[in-house]
Amino acid sequence: LGPHLRRGSSSNHFDETTDGTDYILWSKDNTYFEMCRRHYIGNHTWGAHLAKYVDKAGVKNIVEAMNIDGLKIPKTLALYNKENISSFSLETMKQIPQPYIIKPTHLAGSVHRVKDDTLESIKGDWEGTWEETHESLMNDMNLEFSSWHDEMQYKDVPHQIMMEEDVSNEMKQDVSYWYTSNGRPLFVSIQCSPTVGLLGTGQDRAFVNLNFQLLNLRLSKKKCPELVRPRNWEKQVEIATALAKGVPGILRIDLYPGENSVIFSELTYTTQYCHPSFGFHPRVADGLLHAIQYGAIDPEAATPALVKSIIHDRSWVLVQFDDVSRLVTPNSRAFPSPVDLCENGNSNHIQYDHPKWQDNDGVKKCLHAAKEVASSPLRCIAVSSSDTHSSPSFKVFSDEKVPTFSTVMGHVDWGRAITLLVLAAILSCMGVGTKKQKNQYLNNALYLVAMLVVVRLTSPDVESTFSHHSILDTTKESFRAFAYVHPMESTHIALGHFATYWFPIASWTSKSPRNLLLWQFLYEAVTAGVNEYCHLIESENAIHCTRVAFKKSVKMCAFDDLMRAYILPPFFVYGYLLPKFTFYWICKVPFYLWIGALMIGIFCKARNEKLAKRDKKKNMGVKSW
Q1: Per-residue pLDDT, 623
Q2: Are 57 and 163 in contact (CB under 8 A)?
Q3: Which tops the pLDDT comparison, 538 or 185?
């Protein structure tokens, strides 16, 4: 390799190899496609030693020498170069055992089949008379493919036209692409439709790991919803692993699954010539290929479980606000790496395929913010800007994810709780405010006014008493946030709320000031504790971060925080969450269970009526006697 690719000589290399469990993609430069664009494309020093692997005829000899059990290599029936191509005639074409495939050995594309003396195009545009076909052969023979997109590994490949046996009748599925790094297959691209003949990375394809688990990964097209595991999948993995060990670098191995064998096709080092608009989503998969090749992750540690955990990681959360600090909940998303997060956080200002993406001011701010929370259990980055002409601003938030006693109690404002309990005890001891009164409406209103003053004076995050938002806007934003962070699947959160959020309602229905203080104490201590415990065990990081970020944003204004914490929750819990939760789980119960329950109810009712009539007759007989 050239000097720029030697281990430890640039930012693309790493001094310490790990098992990958703490792997984080921090830079676009440390990805396969970016490395390809910057150092592979146009680099003849890099490409020269790989020419033998991309020579479609010569690579067969290399693969055959590996002696891999179960791997079938299509036989080469004829080879034509510039010296003997003139001898290839219509009669010669008919003499070669049909069906067979015609393809150049030194370029991509242009794959055709000869069957029953007829030429048909599989990839390319060879359609027409024999004279036109012969002319196309000569054109391909003279074509310098490496000059098209500077894929210099093709520069030293002999210019030849190859005729090889047609094995399409043995194929059970279209070509599968095995992406490997440093001798290790990591993930496989399989076409959604099993139809043989629709070739290329541009088709809708799914990615799986070596355990055939569907990955949340794609290249340019949509993903498949599901796939059927091939019967010989383990054999395919065994063959691809053996091939990867015998070939250097990051590459794509193209294989055709057969009934009793796996058919070798070719090797590719620069998928889609590493075009800037082409790449893996999420980007962390791109970084994973690079990390294993250049020493950040030990190849032996790159198990299917590790590959899936890195690609499916959702520990980096982007919470979006508009320019007036209102929460944009539909765009609050979790990502597997800071690069993926910052791509989305700056999409209005610069696109990822821009050559200067890594040097953009907004991207730098985003990555810097991500580093601030890299060691935190919950990594939340909030971006605020809807103006496409100004650089976005980023804030970081974090929270615990393990609901220990200390973490839960740390979320309770014990200063307020103890103060309320002490005041209630004093009133009880003095006998003041303990007598039953008509209602406590006025005292509850005064209590809220007092809490507004307390929040304004004691909360360190408060910047003003009132915000420029109207009460209606604050209510709307609070409801949107509440609905988002309370998914119906999180039953523990809903049940915890139903059990404890009636305390403030009880405060309003209480009959004495002392009881009012006791109910508010329970709200401050019990409701807050149960609420925090339920939210801390929320598994969706995006929901958890959205809640933390929204609480931080409204705490800047005392009145907004008062509405969020004391006024609106009972309405949201019992007016929205309870009926929706009930309806949701009623619909979850299968219809036949409801029919069964109805039948049991009818049977029990009929039985009870029968027993009641019998008892009535018995009682009448006793009375008559």
Answers
A1: 55
A2: no
A3: 185
- Residue 234 identity (one-letter amino acid): E
Distance of CA 268 to the CA centre of its chain: 27
**Mean pLDDT score, 390-415:** 86
Residue 387 has pLDDT above 60, yes or no: no
DSSP 321-375: E-TTS-B-GGG-EEESSHHHHHHHHTTTT--TTSTTGGG-HHHHHHHHHHHHTTT
Contact 174, 199 (CB under 8 A): yes
pLDDT of residue 220: 62
Helix locations, 230-303, DSSP H: 233-245, 284-293
Give backbone dihedrals phi and psi of 532, rounded to 5 degrees, phi first: -65, -40
Locate 407 and state its tokens: 């973490």
3-class DSSP state of 7: coil
- Non-local (6+) Cβ contacts of 290 within 8 A are 12, 30, 31, 32, 35, 181, 250, 296
**Residue 6 clears pLDDT 50, i.e. is over it:** no
Contact (CB, 8 A) for 42 and 83: no
Q: Which residues contact 82 (CB under 8 A, 6 or more apart)?
A: 141, 142, 159
Rounded distance between C-alpha atoms, residue 219 and residue 205, angstroms: 8
* 318 Rama sector, left if φ>0, alpha if ψ -120 to 50, beta otherwise: beta
Instruction: Give the pLDDT band (50/70/90) at residue 4.
Output: very low
**Average pLDDT in the 582-600 region?**
79
Residue 374 has pLDDT above 50, yes or no: yes
Q: Over 385-401, what HEC string results?
A: CCCCCCCCEEEEECCCC
Q: How confident is the model at residue 223 (pLDDT cuts 50, 70, 90)?
A: low
Instruction: Enumerate the β-bridge partners of residue 121.
Output: 112
Distance of CA 543 to the CA centre of its chain: 15
pTM as predicted:
0.83
CA distance linking residue 114 with residue 410, whole number of Å: 76
| Residue 422: CA count within 13 A, CB half-sphere | 6
